[in-house]
Amino acid sequence: MEFPSIEKHITLDKMRKYTGGGPGIHTDDEFARTKGLPGAVVQGGQIVGYLNEMMLRALGPGYIEGGEISVVFVKSAMSGDSLVTRSTVTERKSVDGRTRVTCEVWVENARGEKLAVGTASGFEN
After folding, report:
1. DSSP class per residue in 107-125
2. DSSP of 74-100, one letter per residue?
3. 69: Cα separation from own chain's centroid
4. Cα gap 47→9, rounded to integer Å
């Protein structure tokens, strides 16, 4: 079983809003190139935010009250990328009378390349 995916199209404007502006590798293509990058890269927290959104939609208050997430970044996302969250439920177990759901989670780009991988869990309602 998997939770419904969320698709996000990344724009430099969204990256700047998330970061709060100012020059840097997450907001300015030219500045990022001076640091050896092909352009501005999406912040990891923005990507994790999309995974959190997927888990929150699936588990609601059970994710807010007891949710956990752990993610490793394996590839950068950039302006113009379309990202999709994915999950696979790997375990359901009873904890203090509630059902805790654990999932493998990841974000991939339109080419199917995984950008962030990890696990997330929370309680079913």
Report:
1. EEETT--EEEEEEEEEE--
2. -S--BTT-EEEEEEEEEEEEEETTEEE
3. 10
4. 12
What is the per-residue pLDDT across 13-72, written as a single tens digit (0 to 9) for each? 999 999 987 789 999 999 999 999 999 999 999 999 999 999 999 999 999 999 999 999
What is the side-by-side strand order in the sheet with 7-9?
7-9, 82-95, 98-109, 114-123, 68-73
Residue 98 bridge partners (DSSP): 95
CA separation for the pair 19, 46 (Å, rounded): 9
Q: Rounded to whole angstroms, how far apart are CA atoms 51 and 59?
A: 12
- Domain positions in the chain are 42-123
Determine the CATH number of domain 42-123: 3.10.129.10
Q: Please state, in angstroms and rounded to a whole number, the distance separating the CA atoms of residues 41 and 75.
A: 10
User: pLDDT at position 15, please?
Assistant: 94
Say what the pLDDT of residue 20 is: 86
